[in-house]
Design a protein that fits this description.
11 strands; about 45% helix; two-stranded antiparallel sheet; single chain
Length: about 350
């Protein structure tokens, strides 16, 4: 078997603190795999700058000028982790036999990329990196994560337990993934839908090398809710069932209070009245809000807006400064100004 061309895709958002170490460690892995004849010399690392506000793109670009293993993709604005990851996958697919996606914080064990490649050479088209456990997480995060996976499983969503976005995908798998046109992305649920031959590789989660997490509690809850509403209508059905239960309970209580009236045992019940009003009103607001969430997702899908816009691409244009479409000059800070090369993707 010929050595496959590997591209490691790394979405980045304000990662200047950890990026130099990430570049060094990923290059070391790439060189070792090339030395052992497991991947081809043309293999690359593609860093995707998701509209960072710090020096992330500057570090990526400068490293790409002096290092043939490093390439960069600069998006025109911040579009979120999932869209940035897709941008990297779809850009890399034309020049890669397999693609590994990994976060820039080095919490995923890069040593098992070798195991990914071995699985790929055995014929697996999707290889998932799965955490062995969550002992390093806080009690709250561990419990909520486990609850999320259990809820998604109950709703019929096929998820790989304890898997995030650390995975290998073949060129064919990425091309099939590109056919999924929805705007509301949840890649952890979309990738298993491809159905290609897959396997798991287990690893221990490491400590973050530098910087801070880009997924605080608010974003984690939003991500979980998006995942649930993007792949299941069970919440709406649950609200419907709650409505039916409330309706039948009201019939029973109505009959009970009617019987009390005939027997002359009724009293003025302000507490029970106001409690029932608040209960029914709250249920109605929840139901309306939940239905509105689904309608909002439909609204986004009908617009057909691009998922991302590429500002600068040094993957398909390896040497930016030599490309006729790009003029560069030294600015006052010793950086580079570019005539932008833009590309949109739906």
């Amino acid at each position: 078997m010929m050595e496959p061309v590997l591209t490691i895709v790394v979405p980045c958002y304000n990662e200047e603190d950890v990026l130099p170490e990430t570049m060094y460690q990923l290059q070391t892995v790439l060189k070792d795999l090339i030395h052992d004849s497991l991947i081809a010399m043309q293999s690359k690392i593609l860093f995707v700058d998701d509209g960072s506000k710090d020096r992330t793109w500057e570090l990526i670009y400068k490293e790409g000028l002096r290092n043939d293993f490093v390439r960069g993709l600069k998006l025109s604005r911040n579009v979120g982790h999932q869209n940035a990851l897709l941008a990297g996958l779809f850009t890399a697919k034309e020049q890669s036999d397999c693609i590994v996606s990994i976060d820039a914080d080095l919490q995923d064990d890069i040593k098992i990329i070798r195991d990914f490649i071995m699985k790929f050479r055995e014929g697996y088209e999707i290889v998932y990196g799965v955490r062995k456990g969550r002992e390093s997480d806080t009690w709250f995060k561990r419990c909520t994560a486990q609850a999320f996976y259990k809820v998604m499983n109950k709703m019929g969503v096929d998820l790989v337990y304890n898997h995030a976005d650390f995975r290998l995908m073949s060129n064919r798998a990425v091309k099939e993934l590109e056919r999924f046109n929805e705007v509301n992305l949840f890649l952890r649920g979309m990738v298993p839908l491809l159905g290609f031959r897959s396997d798991l590789v287990y690893y221990d989660r490491l400590e973050r090398q530098a910087g801070k997490t880009k997924y605080p509690l608010k974003k984690m809850l939003g991500f979980a809710f998006d995942g649930i509403t993007s792949f299941s209508i069970s919440p709406i059905r649950f609200v419907l069932m709650t409505g039916f239960v409330s309706f039948f309970m009201s019939l029973l209580f109505g009959g009970y209070f009617l019987a009390l009236k005939f027997f002359g045992r009724t009293e003025t019940g302000w507490t029970s009245l106001i409690t029932s009003i608040w209960l029914i009103g709250g249920l109605q607001l929840i139901a309306i809000g939940l239905v509105g969430e689904y309608i909002g997702k439909i609204y986004k899908e009908t617009k057909h807006r691009p998922k991302y816009i590429v500002d600068i691409d040094s993957f398909t244009i390896p040497r930016l400064s030599n490309h006729p479409l790009i003029q560069s000059k030294e600015d006052g800070n010793g950086g580079l100004d570019f005539l932008k090369v833009s590309e949109t993707h739906k």
